Amino acid sequence: MSAKTGGPVYKGVGRIPDRALLLFSVLIYAFLYAPILVLMFFSFNSSRSTQSWTGFSTEWYAALLRDETIHQAFFNSMKVGVTATLIATVIGTFTALALTRHDFRGKLAADTTIYAATVMPEIVVGVSLLAFFVATLIPLGIELGIVTIVIAHVAFTVSFVTIVVRARLAGMDESLEEAAQDLGANPTTTFLRVTLPLIFPGVMAGALLAFTLSFDDFVITFFVSGVGSSTLPLKIYSMIKFGVTPVINALSTVVLVATIALIFGGSRLLVRRENS
Amino acid sequence: MGGKGRGWTLRLVGLLTPITVWLGLFFLVPLLLILAYSFGKSGVYGGITLGFNPGNYLKVFDPLYLEIIIRTFVIAALTTLICFALGYPLAYFITFKGRRWRNALILLVMVPFWTSLLIRAYSWVVILSGNGIANKTLQFLGITDAPVTLIFTSQAVLMGMVYSYLPFMILPLYASLEKFDTRLKEAAKDLGASRWETFWRVTFPLSMPGVIAGSILVFIPSAGEFVIPQLLGGSRTVMTGSLIQSQFGSARDWAFGSALSIMLAALLLAAILFYVRRVGADKLEGV
Question: pLDDT digits over B117-149, tens only?
Fold first, then answer.
């Protein structure tokens, strides 16, 4: 986001449309946040109800701490998220470099595939991977589990990383790389000492996006996970299906707060990098 | 750039091999596999025999399934339309009236954008089910006397969809409005255009890339949506996503499930191409 201001504010005719617009915007923000706040509110309810307030308690958070299956799901999500992010970030950065710095036959095909992977409905990606894994891995004796989830998550996040890093590379001054090479740096040194530091905010943004997409993914994971490899979203889904209790609200609240902290932390980190 | 020698080729091969393997093996091959399955025949116990059997596609025209597919596209289109109607004024407000609060206001849109869709859908389960907040509000306002069924209706699904995908519309709209040169507005005003004329003939046409990107970002996931109809629609408001899932799950008809998946992907691709062509591909530059 650039910090430039929107220019002179429209003055004169019609204060009424401005007021209406302001009111409308306030209502939209209320619409965006009210359901989340209701959800958080009932995580502190003293009874099992998620609809009638009976008093304050933190017992659902205590229940959350006791539930081993939730911990296991959280660790699975972290394991998958970190591994998939690392792989997707490296591959995505390589791809972005090839697409911005080189011309080659099949570039259009590569571009099309990368964009197709970002717009393909998740359900289609999910079932096609399930069919693929069942046809190839199961005969080899490999079960659906963490490994298949990681493979799937890299497949659907790598294109997003590529697009984000590529946007950063496109805005970069190529003459810096040429200067480094003229001064005798080999391609690897040029990449590590010049290109990478310059595109680092883009790489970080891509990694952050990949991690969030992976950590939140339900649909694709639903199809490629096996017994005992439940991730956090899968666990939450089965809890909702099993019956609504404030434990789900407590868990959701924790996930929401962590997400918000990650966004703020991430954006501050990126801004600081950008400025230095 | 640079001299093209063996080193250049080697480097290019090195950079491109990982993505080619990964997307080739784990994106394209699986799609080709379900394309092949979609012409196959499902066995009684779930196995699949390959062949050329267009019957799976013809089955789509069974009124039972056709209704689900039509409902899917109607709900996805309505979601896109409502998100646009709600999102455009907000994006406009943030860009032109946000002043020094602009970055904070857009961050407030990004928080739900990054937040788990599942959790946000669940919040509506809490609100709409039983005698929840929604029903209590209706009774308080005197609209109803007793709790009414709000969840497990197509309206509930639509509500959940609009709620989930609204940020996906606002962010690209903001991104394109933000690039807008406000001097153009002043020029239009100087030339005698009214506020509305300025908006319709200058601001809005220039924000088309954002409108296109936002519509695609909302329409595609809504048409393929599986979680929201499962949680808020129940068995009465089934959408294509849930239908595909049940074919790969309890129904064990992978051939039909594959045909539905291929059809969904093809229809969405066609919709994007048609849409982009109608409004002009050149406008997509810089999205």
Answer: 999 999 999 999 888 888 888 888 888 888 888
